[in-house]
Specification:
Helix content is 20%, strand content 30%. By secondary structure, the chain is an alpha+beta fold. The protein has a domain at 8-144: Aminomethyltransferase beta-barrel domains (Alpha-Beta Plaits, 2-Layer Sandwich), CATH 3.30.70. Strands 1, 2, 3, 4, 5, 6 and 7 form a seven-stranded antiparallel sheet that branches. The chain has a four-stranded antiparallel sheet with strand order 9-10-8-11.
Length: 245
Amino acid sequence: MNAEKPQFVQFSLQGEDAEKFLQGQLTADVSKLGLSYQPTAISNLKGRISFGIWIKKQAEKHFDIVISTDCGDALQQHLRKFGAFSKFTTSAPEPIYPCVLSDEPTFSHLEDHNRDEDTAAWVARSLETGNYWITAATQDMFQPQELRLHQRGGVDYDKGCYLGQEVIARIYFKAAPKAFLHYVKGTGAAPNAGDKLEHAHVVNVRAVDGGFVALVIARPEKLAESDLQVLDLPEALQADVARRK
């Protein structure tokens, strides 16, 4: 899938055990979800993100999940495997379109938003706001705290157990990632998502005149030694990724 034109699908998860099951899977607290898409993740047992998703609570026992199209089948297989003894059903995936509404990157079912200019605007605004997206190329690479997901409400450190929780909590309470999310500008050909540059690991990228802009995982001191220009993320994502002592 072209890194500059991401595609997404949405499917619904409904049933008596839907909330309980998701609570044991997601890094976010499912009981706090509302009608707005919340970025969150399902991690592997090593605490790295296998599935980067957006989720909202559509109704009681009804949740809508958005994920990169190339990860959709794998997520459905994951849900069937871990939810084999839980009472819920998942719908067939349907295309959903990235767009920008009220200056925020979001998603729409409307065909009016199925346009290249809407996707381009979503990519540009997502990079500016740290709204990363995980594709098949970057599955199991990044830890939630590295991606500043906790600063966007996507990780709850007070909820009960979930996949990878032990590792994620240990990093938060007893350590801190030395490399974490930055928004940068570079020159030359745009790398691909998942590529390792000299001082950074690429999460998402888009080509611009004379170079590229990207979300990368990197150590701040290494970025200072590189040719990459560090751009400002939103204020909420400029805070230290470590837990406040």
